[in-house]
Amino acid sequence: MGDFKLTSVEEFEAATARLLETGAKVGADSWQMRVKNQTPHCKFGEQGICCRICAMGPCRITPKAPRGICGCDVHGIVGRNYLKFTAGGAATHSDHGREICHTLHCAEEGGNYQVKDPAKLLKLAKEFGVETEGRDIYDVAHEVAEAGLMEYGKPFGFQKFLDRMPESQKELLIKNELAPRAIDREVASSMHMTHMGCSSKPEALIKQSIRCGMGDGWGGSMMGTEFSDVLFGTPKPIDTEANLGVMNADNVNIVVHGHDPSLSEMICEYADDPEMIAYAKEMGAKGITVSGVCCTSNEVAMRRGVPMAGNFLQQENVVLTGACEAIVVDVQCIFPALGPLSKCFHTKFITTSPIAQMPDSDFIRFSPENAGENAKAIVKMAIENFKNRKPELVHIPDMKQKATVGYSLEAIVKTLDGVTNSQVDVTGTTKPLLECVTSGVLRGAVAMVGCNNPKVRPDTAHIELMKKLIANDIIIVASGCSAQAAARAGLMDKRAKDLCGAGLKRVCELADIPPVLHMGSCVDISRMMNLVAELAKDSGLKISQLPVVGCAPEWMSEKAVSIGNYVVGTGIDTFLGVEPYVSGSTEVEQLLTDGVREWTGAAYTVEKDIDKLGDAMIQRIEEKRAAIGI
Ligand code: XCC
Ligand code: SF4
């Protein structure tokens, strides 16, 4: 294995502890302290049995008070809360997707945003029925963007991307009224259903939760991914590094955080500008380092190899290094804590989106029209802030791992082309991957996704589960903060093949891949959905028959629940390590862990014991193999 060694969670924690010492010196607050103040959490909230959707309440269900004032029982309340949670997540992802559609609509030759992947654009044009023959590529782009935007509010039919599904799953969804119509309509219908005096029947609420999630995964999120690829390029394998050690004490450090690549791409562009680098040198730095946190980091890592400083619960750590000149954010998963925290240091906390405005930040509003100009201004601001650093507070943990990232569906298909014994031509399909699975060289695949949550020792669940799964010849596709946990530990280093079972190790060697494939940000879970759809079509199996499961062991956001619902809606069993606030209702719990299987072919498993969660996934994969006789 040479000098390769995984970084352990204990090492992560030691680094964090050292940073918190700096924090204590400057009087900084931290999520670790706030968790203490907030624990134990409200039991009513945890079980999902508090209703405050009308002003007769709030009503809380107890043995003595089994119904709210309106007469709603616990199942109705829990179900409504679950649907509202889903709608929040679906709206968030989908609005991100909408922003990207608008950005594509503004793309122009020589402009701030351009078409970088015309082949993908033409493929989308064909799907949307947009004429391409003899037309200017930007005319096509604008019409495709408009067709995408129409998906949000179209009055009739189902979402276009459902046509990418194997017929069997699509028909099942239509039959059970789970096929999403317009993206916004599913969110609005959910909010309508959960209004006082509408639905209180658990089946109806859970069905709509699935449909609303599907509107995200096979609508808004998929749009976000596809159109981002058109604008910024479809990811290909690329080398990068991960963990706080990617920040450089000699350089101006700019950290991008959030989700929308329209901002981070521009910041990276200008940070690379020789004029800006010269300016940084003039200001006493050796250069400029851009690194990322959360999904925006995944976006620029996948396309540019920009290093990943950390995931969700590392966001305060980047400021605590004392070496962050600017943390530039757009939307989602940004701690409001960054405002006061950055005030304890010289760090500029720069918000850019009207969607995510926060106290104690500098707000520089970003739009496709002013993106170039504003990105330049932000980079300059960071450079000029270098001189304000307090050297005595600077400490960057010397800790990073190499990672190969950029495994879009296209890249996976291309990379695995070589790994086949097939006599017939299977180039450009998922058949080589299927062959590995049917022959048993690989037992199956797990999609590891989602956040960190202080309820789980941060990153442990992601890392321990991945180690266990790859040792059992199960290949991992990862996204979001899960992918970053893997990268920081070293699981995206190709040398991690030595931690795999013999079969997966062989595949890693033949295809020259790491055992954990970074598929991107959270909207890019749509890439995973496209992958399973292709696998099902290429194998002639239903999606629910494939030895594939999804897992979010440390999830925390509304988006994650929306994701879970569309993964289940797609026919993939989903394993959670954190409870989704439904334990107050036996009926809702039963539906999610069992009942939905009849409607979608898949269901949830919730298990807080990480080892048991891993065993349950392996068992499910083996059951699926046995059922199809492989
Ligand atoms: Fe946010 Fe996407 Fe969760 Fe990470 S994984 S904490 S949602 S950044 Ni999306
Ligand atoms: Fe209470 Fe019913 Fe109003 Fe909810 S909708 S707060 S249960 S009265």
From TrEMBL:
Its EC number is 1.2.7.4. GO terms for biological process: generation of precursor metabolites and energy; response to hydrogen peroxide. It is an enzyme of class 1 (oxidoreductase). Its cofactor is [4Fe-4S] cluster. Keywords: 4Fe-4S, Iron, Iron-sulfur, Metal-binding, Nickel, Oxidoreductase. [4Fe-4S] cluster 1 binds at residues 42, 50. It catalyses: CO + 2 oxidized [2Fe-2S]-[ferredoxin] + H2O = 2 reduced [2Fe-2S]-[ferredoxin] + CO2 + 2 H(+). [4Fe-4S] cluster 2 binds at residues 51, 54, 59, 70. InterPro entries: CO_DH_a-bundle (IPR016101), CODH (IPR010047), HCP/CODH (IPR004137), Prismane-like_a/b-sand (IPR016099), Prismane-like_sf (IPR011254). Pfam families: Prismane (PF03063). [Ni-4Fe-4S] cluster binds at residues 259, 295, 333, 451, 481, 522. One of its GO terms (molecular function) is hydroxylamine reductase activity. This is Carbon monoxide dehydrogenase. It comes from Fusibacillus kribbianus.
